[in-house]
Amino acid sequence: MTTRRSRPARTAGSYLVLTVLALVFVAPIAYLVIGSFKPSSEVIDGVGGFVPRDLSLDNYTGMLGRFASPATGYFADFFFTSLLVTVCVVAFGLLVNSMAAYALARLQWVGRNAVMLGVVALTILPFEAIAVPLFYALNDHRNTYYIQILPFVASAFSIYLFYSFFIGLPKETEEAARLDGAGVWRTYLQIIVPMSKPVFATVAILSFLTTWGSFLWPVMMIDQPQKRPLPLAIAVFQGQPPYDWGQIFAFGVLMVLPVLVVFLLFQRWFVQSLASSGLKG
Amino acid sequence: MSAVATRRSGARRRETLAGWTMMAPAAVGLVLFVLVPFLLAGWLSTQNVRLDTPQPPSWFGFEHYRRILLDPDFRTDFWTGLRNNLIFAAVVVPLQTSLALALALLLNKPLRGMPVFRTFFFMPVVFPMALVAVVWKVIYTRGELGLLNSVLDTISFGLIPAQDWLGNPSTALLAIIVMSIWQGAGLQMVIILAGLQSIPAELYEAAALDRANAWQRLRNVTLPGLRNTLIFVAMVTTILSFRLFDQVYIMTGGGPQDATTTVMFQAVTTAFQTNNVGRASAITVLFFLIVLTITLIQRRVLREEREIA
């Protein structure tokens, strides 16, 4: 008989391991948040970086004051760029990709199978594989908002996620609506969309996270401060001496705050979305 | 009879029209911004084309590929990048997958407070990589005041000396690896959790009847049940390893001494700093071939899995 630990001891062991791991996972985030409220000189201070001492909003006001001319760009510009680009990519993406997936999953039309094959083939292609030629072809459109939006609206992967969901929906309601004389568009808008909230949430969340964090494309296309999205702006900020880590951390907190708020509000959706996107892919 | 046929073919024509109309916006976007650039990459990779001259592209054959892969004057860059990608994948895939599996198994226990722990482990996933890279760059600060150095010094009672994590060629890639695992494990964890919850409870009941211990349950029920999930997770992480760019760009710029350069980093700097679009496109094509190979292997392995099951 092997030695068996008692149930309470095992439970305590699990909690101990979980707590240690949780501390490791949270530590960098805690460091970021605490550092953003501390005097800059005390951010890089060994484990002392975790000690919340002399807290103030100085880094936030200082950072906003630093980005206050057209040469540096304004923090509000960076934030607006990220917000505009993300809202447009997510909203147009939901519309365009769900429509396409509905046509592929539910309608009979000439060329449908060929198009579906093409969409599946394109899901393999990561953006990195086309970034360089795209950068070459669109060189005249640098430093615009639309160039940060247009290439990312249509997405083979989003179409695929919508398609997998639509194909599993029962056909009865839809056929009843069609018999009642509802056209394709009305069936899509009034029957399909309301039944498909989970997949819309999944695609919206995935697209939101990817777009808000988008980095490679802005690095290639944007050099004007006014059109910089937040990830590119913080990369530029942290590379320019003299380094003010408190202010850089304040920038970081403001940059992740919208994502964290949405995440904490819709946490179950986030987790389910990302888990299911994994299983289907 | 013929009226019905006409009406039916009219309906079909209307449906074809509606089908194409609904498909059109996405189709235009995919053709313009995915398919055409992809074909363009192939064409540009055979051209001598630069951004800094007004000269039009000219035929270069496979010279870019020869230089990238074989020419002693140029090949080091690409092979060093590929080597770093491979090291990254070889360390991150097993380590991150095991960590994510361990986290998922812990969270799957029927204990109180699990959603709170899940939130903690998952939180890094929603952080933009650029921000994560900035924060960890500060954590890796060299000298005794660096956070990581100070933490290691404290828990080892002074046994571990301070390192220049990002400045030393032998630790820089490791530093990027650790940070990437921290950011990526939570995502894998929720995918594996979903996989765990889809394993039928009867299998565990049967194992309990057979008096299987915890280790036997893990080996004979849990791991086989998770097989497809784990293969999927490992493959996705492998592909992500080859896409590595943001962290390198922000934390090390490929250095020190090319210790952290990657294939993607090579492609971007070649296009951007040396304006050599042709060679950058050739690197891009090679990158795509690597990703395609991994994807095909993944599909083959998963299909065989399904046939057995």
Would you mind describing this structure in some detail?
The complex is a heterodimer of chains A (281) and B (309). Chain A has 281 residues and is an all-alpha fold. Chain A has helices at residues 7-37, 58-66, 75-106, 112-122, 128-137, 146-149, 156-167, 172-179, 184-195, 197-212, 216-221, 230-237, 245-265, 267-280, and strands at 68-69, 73-74. Chain A has a single domain (73-280), classed as MetI-like fold (Orthogonal Bundle), CATH 1.10.3720.10. Chain A contains 14 helices and 2 strands, in the order H-H-E-E-H-H-H-H-H-H-H-H-H-H-H-H. In chain A, strand 1 and strand 2 (73-74) form a beta hairpin. The two termini of chain A are 45 Å apart. The mean pLDDT of chain B is 90. Chain B is mainly α. Helices cover 72% and strands 1% of the residues of chain B. The chains are: A mainly alpha (281), B mainly alpha (309). The interface between A and B is large, with 99 and 100 residues.
Mean pLDDT of chain B: 90
Number of strands of chain A: 2
CATH evolutionary superfamily of chain A = MetI-like
Largest sheet features of chain B: 2 strands, antiparallel
Count of DSSP helices of chain A?
Answer: 14
What shape does the CA trace of chain B take?
A: flat
| Mean pLDDT reading of chain A | 91
- CATH evolutionary superfamily of the largest domain in chain B: MetI-like
Unreliable segments of 5+ consecutive residues of chain B: none
Features:
heterodimer, A: 281 residues, mainly alpha, MetI-like fold, two-stranded antiparallel ribbon, 2 strands, globular, B: 309 residues, 13 helices, flat
Topology diagram in text:
The complex is a heterodimer of chains A (281) and B (309).
Chain A: H1 7-37, H2 58-66, E1 68-69, E2 73-74, H3 75-106, H4 112-122, H5 128-137, H6 146-149, H7 156-167, H8 172-179, H9 184-195, H10 197-212, H11 216-221, H12 230-237, H13 245-265, H14 267-280
Antiparallel strand pairs in A: 1-2
Chain B: H1 2-44, E1 47-48, E2 58-59, H2 63-69, H3 75-107, H4 114-122, H5 129-139, H6 147-155, H7 172-197, H8 201-209, H9 214-225, H10 227-242, H11 246-251, H12 263-272, H13 277-308
